[in-house]
Give the backbone structure.
Amino acid sequence: MKRTHNNGQLRIENINQEVSLIGWVSKKRNFGSIIFVDLRDRYGITQVVFDESKFPLANELRSEFLIEISGQVVERKDYNPKLATGEIEVIVSEFKLINKSKQTPLLIQDNTDALEETRMKYRYLDLRRPIMQERLIKRAKIVKAMHHYLDSHDFIEVETPMLTKSTPEGSREYLVPSRVHPGEFYALAQSPQIFKQMLMISGFERYYQIARCFRDEDLRADRQLDFTQVDIETSFLDEIEFQTIIEEMVHHVFKEVMDMDIQIPFERIPFDKAMNLYGSDKPDTRFEMKLHDLVDVFQDSTFKVFQQALTLKNGTIKAIVLHEGASSTRKEIDGYTDIIKKNGGTGLVTLKYQDNQLSGSAIKFFTESEIEQLINTLGLTENDLVCIVSGPWEKSCNALGTLRTHFRDKFLDIDKNLFNFAWVTEFPMFELDEESNKIVARHHPFTRPDISDISELYKDTEGLLEIKAIAYDLVLNGFEVAGGSMRIYDGEMQSRFFEIIGFTPEQIKTRFGFFIDAFNYGTPPHGGIAFGLDRFAMILAYGETIRDVIAFPKNSAARDPLTMAPSLVDEKQLKELHLEIKES
C-alpha cells in the first residue's frame, strides 16, 4: 500500500474514493462486529471502520499501534464537528499492522495526565500529542517568516562559531577543554555578539542568524541552558530606523503565522516611565492597574515607614489598587506581603475602601487631609484594596510590579489573542552592584552610551549612573522577546567602558584585544537586536513555559530526563582532555 492522503486531508468531496492511510491508533471503539479506530498522524485524525469478521486482528489493536489501511471514503452518519475530517470515514478493505506499542506512560492527547518530568522522560511520546506538534510547527513557521522577511530585505545569513574564546560578558560560560592544547579552553558562545559586530566591521551591513547560545544559568520557566536567538545586526541606521525594520518583520510574522494584522509602529516607553507606571522594564500593557506615586500625598507624613522612605536619595511611595479586592482575607493579604518581600520590597501597607471610608492598621497614622488626598489621587471606588510599598525607587517599583502581575494572573481574564507590543527605551547605562558596590553594565559592555562627548565617561560614580544607553527592549505581554542596542564603534570609548566595569588594561588586552584592535580599521556605526526565539514562540503558541516549544529541553534541575545528561564520562576521556576530577 502507498499512502495517498494524510489523516487531516479527507473531506466530503473525497466520498467514494479509494485511499490509503498510515497512522497511530489514537482511540478504538468496539461496537459488536464493527470496530471504529481514530487514526492519527501530525496532520490530524481520520475515523476508519473495520469489519471484525474480515479483520479479526483489528480486535487486538491498542493505543499507539502503528497501522496502514486502504479503503473507501464514505459519508459519516454521525458528523463530528470537532474534527476537520468529521464528515467522512474510511471503510477498511486492506489492513497491515506495522508496529505494536506498549501501554504508554502518558495519554497521547492535548490534555494529558502526566507530570512534566514524565513528559520529558518520554519526550518522543509527549511530542506525539497534537498540541505539542502544533506548537513546534508554529515555531517553525515563525522562523520561516523571519527568514523570508530578512532575506527579502538584503540581510545576509552568516554562521558564527559556537566554540570561541572565553570573554565573560555577564553570564557564566560553559568551558570546553582542548585536547590538542593542554590546559586551554574554548567557551561555548553566550551569543554571537562580538562576531556580529565584526561582521559589520567587515562591511556586510545587514546580517542575521538563527543562533544557538549557551549560558550556565539557574533555570526558570522562560530560561534554558542552551537556547536559540534570532540575531540581527545592521550598519548606518539609527535606532528608530532599525526599530522600524524590526516592527515590519514582526508584522510580517504575525500575518503569516497568526493571520493577524498587528498595529505598527509600537508604543515607545522610556525605562523610567515603564517602572513608574507598570513596575517593570517589561510591562504588560494589556490591562490598566497602573502604579500611582504617593510622594506628594505623604510628603509631611508622621508615619515612620513613609518617613524613612522619603529620607532615601531615591526613596518613593507607590501604590496599586485592586478593584473589588477589599474582600481579600488576612491569609491572602499575607500572601501579597510575601510577594513584595521576596521581590525586594521592604513591606506592604494595605487599606480597604468600604462605605466611603478607608480602613487598615496604618490609617491611624494618616491625617484627614492625607486620607482625602489618597482617595482622590487613587480614584477609589467601593470595595477597593489599596496596596502601598515604600523604599528605594527601583526596588519598590519592581516589587509592586510583581504584585500587579500576580493580580493579573489571579483575577483578570485577558483575551489570549490580545498581543500588546512596546519598545522600552532609554535604559540606564550602568548600575551599582549591591554585593560588590561596583559599577556594572546594565545591558552588555558593547552598548553605546547616549552622550556627545567621551569625557562624560570620566565622571564620578553618581554621574556615570545618570548616563542613558541607546538600548531598547521589545516587550510583548509582559515578556522581553528581544533586546538590542546601538553599539560602541570607537576603540577609545570601548576601552574606557571596560575600565569602568573593572577590567584592568591587561585584562582588556587579553580578553578583548582582538576586538579593540578591529576598531582601528574604519568601524561603521552599527546596532542590532536579538530575539529570544523560544520565548517569542511560547507566547505565539499559547504555551506556559519555553519548554513547550523546545523539542528536547532541560528540566529545572538543568538535566535532560530523556538522556539523563549530564552524565559521568570514563577515565580515558578525561585523560585525553588532560582533566582530573577531584572531590571537594
Observations:
- The longest helix spans residues 130-151.
